[in-house]
Design a protein that fits this description.
Blueprint (H helix, E strand, L loop, with lengths): L6 E6 L2 E6 L2 E5 L6 E2 L2 E3 L14 E3 L10 H5 L7 E4 L2 H4 L10 E4 L4 E4 L2 E7 L17 E6 L3 E4 L9 H4 L3 E7 L14 H10 L2 E7 L4 E3 L7 H17 L14
Parallel strand pairs: 3-6, 6-7, 7-8, 12-13, 13-14
Antiparallel strand pairs: 1-2, 2-3, 4-5, 5-15, 9-10, 10-11, 11-12
Helix pairs in contact: 4-5
Amino acid sequence: MSDRTPLARWHGHATVSITDRGTTILTDPILTDRVAHLRRRRGPNPLGTPLLPDAVVLSHLHADHTHLPSLRLIGGDVPILVPTGAVGQVSGLRAFGDRLIEVSPGDEVRIGGVLVRAVPAEHDGRRWPRGPHRVRALGYVIEGEGRTYFAGDTALYGSMSDWIPECDLALIPVGGWGPSLGPGHLDPAAAVRAAVAVGARTAIPVHFGTLWPMGFDSVRPDRFYGPGAEFVRRMAEAGLTATELRPGESS
C-alpha cells in the first residue's frame, strides 16, 4: 500500500473531491443550498471554488446522492458513473446521454491517471422507498498513487473486507440528514468497524453536519454536529487515525 494519501476536499454531506495522479473524482455532488426539504446549514456552497472534476461517481439514487440540479451544474463532457439500471429508474438522467457509464460491483473504469472500481454497498438503492429493488447501491475504490474507498451510504456487510482489503484513505459515512438514522447506515461506532474492515490507514467522516430538514434546527442538534467528532474519538481509542474536516476543508 502506498505511503501517499490522496488529497480529499470535503464539500459537505457525501460530496468529496478526490485528487490522485492529477485526476479528480467528485462523489455524489450536492452543489446547491437546498435538496427538497433539506437545506445546507453549514459550510460554503461548493460552487464558491472552482470544481473541475475529471469524472463524477454516484453511489445510489436517493435525492441527496443523485441530485439532478447539481449534476446539471457540472459542465462539459465529464463522465458520470452510475449504478447499473439507474437510467431506467431516474428519467432525468437520460439528459446526460453518453456521459453516463453504468457499473456494477467489480466493474472498473479508467479515468485519467486513476482506476475507479465499483464495490457493493448495503443500502436501499431505489430512488423512492417503494417498488422493486432493481438498482444496487454502490461504493467506489479509486486507485492511483494511493487507494481511496468512498463508501457512499452503507451498513457493514460480511464481504466488505474481501472487496476492500486495504486502503490509504476511507471516506466513511457516520450520520445522516435528520434526527434519526434508519437501516443501511453507519453510526460512528459501526463506522469504526467499517474502517477496520477495509484496512484504512486513515479515514475522514462524511455524511453528517451539512444538510438538515427545514424547521428542525433545534431538534437533536447532537445528531447534526456530533457524529464526526465521535468517530474521530472512537478511532483514536482503537489506535487508528481519522481527521474531521469542516465542509470546504481539504485533508
